[in-house]
Amino acid sequence: MKLTTAGESHGKTLVGIIEGLPSNLPIDIDFVNNCLALRQSGYGRGGRQKIESDKIEILSGVRNRLTLGSPLAFQIVNRDYANWQPYMAPEGADVSQKRLTKVRPGHADLTGVIKYDQTDARNILERASARETAVRVAAGAIAMCYLRELGVQISGYVKCVCGVEDKAFYPFERLSEAKEQPLFMLDGELQKKAMQLIDELRVAGDTAGGIVEIRVKGLKSGFGSCMQYTTKLDSILCGALMSVQAIKGVEVGMGFGVAYKPGSLVHDEIYLKDGAYVRTTNNAGGIEGGMSNGGEIVLRAAMKPIPTLMKGLNTVDISTGQPAKAASERSDVAAICACEIVAECVTATALAEVVSARLGGDNLREVKERYSRLP
């Protein structure tokens, strides 16, 4: 299974192509669109989300809501393109307008301009934008449709917003409650505190990041491999999360905490109970030796504060070489809820690729039969 994406933030459309899906997989379009809506939600978002109302349009590979086994192509139309067509149209555009030369710290602007020999950071930021994650959410929701057929579930919540941290550990069944909250947090008092902080940052022209926790339940053991470093499951999942714009750190299970404790308090001891191997703790986060061990997979990703600040950061105008204040391209203060949804979906896509690689199968019946035979 493989996902390819294309499209610019203010271009005509965002496009995705998924190869390798088995035939006869039911595609829940309403579920996909709900995930897209959740990506646009959350306390601290800006005006762009009022312009766009993302919906998936499947172009090929599906008939009567069932996959055909051929590549599944889809698009998410950018409604804002109507306002940007004079400046973004591939057929011809006025590129002297909407130029961005006051490159923004923390963005791809300056490095991209140098790498791709540009004089306008617009040619970089349009693709580097987090708008691209809409495609990955749609693809990830389709991957969840695939994983659900095998009994594998993915969920998550916001664990921290700019230092306001929830240190509790919640059962998987409670995680879905987070999506009903304005900031996807499960502790009401901490959520109020975080929302107040976001309000203060908005007044100050500043931004916030945070931490999201993603959990996977129901995956059998043996996915991933210890034989090649490129096939280690934790490497694949962490790499997928690190590919998301603004993610600067990922940990599995106890994560960085393992460096502060002795081995006797880190490693999950193994017991034999009723003929089955069991662990009473899950510090490994469901992955040992690069392979799933049958326990819940626990992942946490750290999102940096949005680097476009309304008050602007010190930078250089590349057209003049003079000091300047960085341009403001958006007005989000916090996009941590969007980050949580994106993190769930990229985890689903990466996991579906791993599962598909092991199980193979041209149709869903074959895939399910092969998975049912695994211990």
Automatic annotation (TrEMBL):
Entry EC number(s): 4.2.3.5
Keywords: Amino-acid biosynthesis, Aromatic amino acid biosynthesis, FAD, Flavoprotein, FMN, Lyase, NADP
Co-factor binding details: Reduced FMN (FMNH(2)).
Enzyme class: lyase
One Gene Ontology MF term: chorismate synthase activity
Protein name: Chorismate synthase
Record bears the keyword NADP: yes
SUPFAM superfamilies found in the cross-reference section: Chorismate synthase, AroC
Organism superkingdom: Bacteria
Gene3D superfamilies, per database record: Chorismate synthase AroC
HAMAP family: Chorismate_synth
